[in-house]
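Design a sequence for this backbone.
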């Protein structure tokens, strides 16, 4: 487990510290879930009345009638018998997450009603988790769910699950065109600018640049590396040529080649052009295949790749994650960005937006630097309410990046446009954790902890990484105005 916040609520100490008097433990639990409710001067008698009844629940279980009476006593609306049964008296095996992981251990459930503080806290944690996950606001969720029958609640939350059984039973997709890992950098847009033929001369941009430099130096024997270096100086005021020359600067095989005439220069560059054209043809065919399964796309993989090693590392990491046994059983349809290309960058943007829209989850390889395009894809996925996993490099710089994304970055939590729920990304440095998170997402096995540090903010943290995935503000005016007016249409 990485970066787990050490919070009393997360560690369930409120229910676990049995050395305190039961009345004090009950008061601590109520203060956690209803901050400030026990402190008002006008509620003293009501609070004492409620505490008196709760203290006796181990010898006289609180059934739905008493539960509603206690709510009415503090001027709150009651709940249906189905709501009471669903949250406090029954475990659900068709919930969107494992309810048996809410508390460790799961308390005993009394068929007569609530008979222990642990059972009360278990039910409250379940409701608060659902409220933050699917409504973003506890009061809004209560208004909506408290009137539902048991059967309606079962159906409502069953519909929030991923259909993992269908995923495991579906057939495999048509095979993608294979592209050697060392050639995948050739599908990039800058590779196209480097090796695609110029319409007038029939030569690639790279050959045109190097030929001009070779002729200017008087021809003769020369290393490609030297020609590239001299060409960079000549292209100092030409940004596109600078990009082309920078792109080939880590191609050791090309740079170490020596030529003695223009024909050899043409042959050397033409060899690269042939490899480029083969990789690009395969990538274009793969894009057609990705579009043919976009309606079934499970995971969109986002990243920013500029160097050859970026493509190598991305391809290997992608293969490593999706070949984990826990994920292979779902036969996931995922988009590998090292295997796809578009005819032009306008089409590429449209295609990738469509994939983000259709994918059920997004995996973002953060890399060393920010990228507007990929940050935009993360923002789009969060605004659609999709689970977003951000994988940062497993080094010191990656740790800084992880903290930045998790705690600082403005895209760390965004509003789901459909319903106004504040959604947060899940951030890690470990490939195995990223794979486990995807497995839990598609197996309805995500685990969460509720945090309330006394500041009135309710935060729902993903348990493996400690990332805040949902948030309710402590500002009453922001909370009420937001959820009263968010859905208003001018």
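Sequence:
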């Amino acid at each position: 487990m990485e970066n787990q916040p050490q919070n009393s609520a997360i560690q369930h100490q409120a229910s676990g510290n049995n050395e305190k008097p039961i009345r004090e433990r009950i008061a601590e639990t109520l203060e956690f879930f209803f901050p400030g409710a026990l402190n008002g001067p006008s509620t003293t008698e009501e609070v004492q009345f409620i505490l008196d009844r709760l203290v006796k629940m181990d010898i006289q279980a609180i059934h739905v009638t008493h539960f509603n009476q206690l709510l009415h006593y503090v001027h709150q609306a009651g709940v249906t018998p189905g709501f009471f049964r669903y949250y406090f008296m029954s475990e659900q095996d068709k919930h969107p997450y494992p309810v048996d992981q809410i508390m460790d251990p799961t308390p005993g459930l009394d068929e007569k009603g609530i008979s222990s503080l642990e059972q009360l806290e278990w039910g409250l944690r379940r409701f608060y988790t659902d409220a933050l996950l699917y409504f973003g606001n506890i009061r809004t969720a209560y208004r909506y769910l408290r009137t539902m029958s048991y059967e309606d609640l079962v159906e409502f939350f069953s519909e929030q699950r991923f259909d993992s059984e269908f995923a495991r039973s579906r057939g495999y997709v048509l095979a993608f065109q294979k592209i050697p890992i060392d050639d995948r950098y050739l599908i990039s847009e800058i590779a196209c600018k480097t090796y695609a033929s110029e319409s007038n001369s029939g030569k690639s941009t790279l050959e045109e640049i190097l030929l001009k430099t070779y002729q200017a130096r008087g021809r003769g024997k020369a290393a490609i590396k030297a020609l590239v270096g001299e060409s960079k100086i000549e292209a100092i005021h030409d940004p596109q040529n600078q990009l082309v020359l920078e792109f080939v600067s880590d191609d050791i095989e090309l740079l170490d080649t020596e030529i003695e005439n223009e024909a050899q220069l043409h042959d050397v560059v033409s060899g690269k052009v042939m490899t480029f054209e083969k990789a690009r043809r395969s990538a274009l065919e793969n894009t057609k295949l990705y579009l043919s399964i976009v309606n079934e796309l499970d995971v969109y993989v986002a990243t920013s790749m500029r160097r050859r090693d970026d493509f190598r590392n991305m391809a290997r990491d992608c293969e490593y994650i999706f070949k984990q046994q826990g994920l292979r059983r779902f036969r996931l349809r995922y988009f590998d960005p090292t295997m796809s290309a578009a005819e032009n960058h306008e089409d590429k943007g449209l295609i990738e937006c469509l994939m983000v829209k259709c994918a059920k989850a997004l995996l973002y390889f953060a890399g060393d630097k920010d990228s507007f395009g990929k940050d935009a894809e993360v923002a789009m996925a969060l605004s659609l309410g999709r689970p977003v996993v951000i994988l940062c490099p497993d080094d010191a710089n990656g740790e800084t990046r992880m903290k930045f994304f998790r705690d600082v970055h403005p895209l760390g939590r965004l509003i789901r446009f459909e319903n106004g729920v504040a959604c947060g990304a899940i951030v890690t440095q470990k490939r195995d954790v990223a794979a486990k998170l995807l497995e839990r997402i598609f197996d309805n096995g995500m685990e969460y902890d509720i945090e309330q540090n006394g500041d009135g903010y309710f935060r729902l943290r993903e348990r493996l990484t400690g990332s805040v995935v949902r948030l309710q503000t402590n500002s009453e005016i922001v909370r009420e105005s937001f959820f009263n007016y968010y859905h208003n249409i001018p």
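The chain has a mean pLDDT of 89.
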